[in-house]
């Protein structure tokens, strides 16, 4: 039985980060956490590219374009969707979630999901460097592991 090791070092990985500008106060904190985690784990700043998009709904399009470019080992998506008084929240959340899932399925490029879906701004801030940690950093760590797993599965098994 083959067991793939868990690797949490980002050295040598090229990572694109897609960030929504909407709810900028929160998304910039997610971005800071994401970049800090990648750099702390050995990523070179020159191997990190950031693509800003208008809002969460646009994240899948940008992430798919970046994944299809073949230039990146992984993509991290960062955004915030805060529940309002209309069904818009559900539509946007479903579109972003489905879109990211389809990118992973269609391209094979690992995509870290750091899109917050919260009831209010306080919950979002708590998850963007507050009492519940930084989900941008967590998405970075997850994508590091998945990028290494994807690489390992493409390599021929040792004899």
Short description:
This protein is of the alpha/beta class and 159 residues long. The protein has helices at residues 24-40, 59-68, 88-107, 121-126, 135-154, and strands spanning 15-20, 48-53, 74-82, 111-118, 128-130, 133-134.
Please give the largest β-sheet. Answer: 4 strands, parallel
Mean pLDDT: 95
SSE run: EHEHEHEHEEH
What is the assembly state of the chains in this entry?
A: single chain
Number of helices: 5
Radius of gyration from CA coordinates: 16 Å
Query: Kindly, what is the distance between the CA atoms of the first and last residues, rounded to a whole number of angstroms?
Result: 12 Å
Task: Give the total of beta strands.
Answer: 6
Describe the strand arrangement of the main beta sheet, using strand numbers.
2-1-3-4
pLDDT below 50 for ≥5 consecutive residues: which ranges? none
Helix content: 40-55%
Classify the beta-strand content into a percent band: 15-25%
Shape: globular
By secondary-structure content and strand pairing, the structural class works out as alpha/beta
């Amino acid at each position: 039985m083959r067991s793939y090791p868990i690797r949490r070092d980002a050295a040598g990985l090229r990572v694109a980060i897609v960030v929504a500008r909407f709810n900028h106060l929160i998304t910039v904190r997610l971005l800071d956490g994401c970049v800090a985690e990648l750099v702390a784990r050995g990523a070179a700043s020159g191997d990190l590219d950031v693509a800003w998009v208008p809002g969460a709904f646009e994240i899948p399009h940008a992430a798919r374009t970046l994944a299809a470019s073949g230039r990146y080992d992984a993509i991290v998506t960062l955004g915030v969707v805060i529940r309002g008084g209309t069904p818009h929240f559900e539509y946007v959340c479903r579109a972003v979630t489905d879109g990211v899932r389809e990118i992973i399925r269609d391209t094979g490029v690992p995509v870290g999901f750091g899109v917050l879906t919260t009831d209010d701004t306080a919950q979002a801030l708590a998850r963007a460097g507050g009492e519940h940690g930084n989900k941008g950093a967590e998405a970075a760590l997850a994508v590091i592991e998945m990028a290494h797993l994807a690489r390992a599965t493409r390599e021929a098994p040792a004899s």
